[in-house]
């Protein structure tokens, strides 16, 4: 693996801060991430932001196929040259914005549920995870390198200050685990904070199936939209168009103290509440 500094200098390319470009420079870390992803020879990997191919090459050595999507057209040719030099011929490199990419269509094209991998910039991490949740019919699992703060948020449980909307959405349909830590100096250019690799395993069958998933996610968004307010006030001041008295009644019927805050409620409580709201609509 040629160092990112050397490659970028040779190709006269500078990392773009606005794209969150911090390229993994330690091949041992890259191999460890792929090993912990548990990729099998039948798997098709969707890699988000392959960059210079640090993870792409070891992933391609074990997967049936890798579909690598990168927004930065400047490094597409560089990446293809690196793959050619490594003798890799099962990677499909595509210049595209993952936030505008049809993940379901890629899954249908692959003919099997995808394994998603990526080193995600902080500014799009939440949006990508939400898109994966909605596309989970075609995504078996995701192994994502995230800023430490984001990783803590998605793995948090009720009562934690970092417990929020993403924690509940993932808790509803997936299991999350911390796989490994990656220190800032192991990237070029080095970010200001360390990163965490997180595994997200989407459930085939939901342990707490909801009657209306879209409504559930809307309720969760409303509850955490004003997280310092009580559930009664947060919901009644949201786009759900519910008055305070109705909110209080439905919260009580769901077994929730109206004066509780969203950060203290487990996933099951949100499901019960959503089902109550659906009944009264």
TrEMBL record:
Molecular function terms, GO-annotated: 16S rRNA (adenine(1518)-N(6)/adenine(1519)-N(6))-dimethyltransferase activity; RNA binding
E.C. numbers: 2.1.1.182
PROSITE patterns per UniProt: SAM_RNA_A_N6_MT
EC category: transferase
SUPFAM superfamilies associated with the record: S-adenosyl-L-methionine-dependent methyltransferases
Domain of life: Bacteria
Residue ranges constituting the Ribosomal RNA adenine methylase transferase N-terminal domain according to the UniProt record: 29-204
Catalysis: reaction(s): adenosine(1518)/adenosine(1519) in 16S rRNA + 4 S-adenosyl-L-methionine = N(6)-dimethyladenosine(1518)/N(6)-dimethyladenosine(1519) in 16S rRNA + 4 S-adenosyl-L-homocysteine + 4 H(+)
Positions annotated to bind S-adenosyl-L-methionine: 22, 24, 49, 70, 97, 119
Keywords: Cytoplasm, Methyltransferase, RNA-binding, rRNA processing, S-adenosyl-L-methionine, Transferase
InterPro entries per record: KsgA/Erm, rRNA_Ade_diMease-like_C, rRNA_Ade_methylase_Trfase_N, rRNA_adenine_dimethylase, SAM-dependent_MTases_sf
Subcellular location: Cytoplasm
Record-linked Pfam families: RrnaAD
GO cellular component terms attached to this protein's record: cytosol
NCBIfam families (alphabetical): ksgA
Function: Specifically dimethylates two adjacent adenosines (A1518 and A1519) in the loop of a conserved hairpin near the 3'-end of 16S rRNA in the 30S particle. May play a critical role in biogenesis of 30S subunits.
Similarity annotation: Belongs to the class I-like SAM-binding methyltransferase superfamily. rRNA adenine N(6)-methyltransferase family. RsmA subfamily.
UniProt-listed HAMAP family: 16SrRNA_methyltr_A (MF_00607)
Protein's recorded name: Ribosomal RNA small subunit methyltransferase A
Species annotation: Desulfosarcina ovata subsp. ovata
Record lineage: Bacteria, Pseudomonadati, Thermodesulfobacteriota, Desulfobacteria, Desulfobacterales
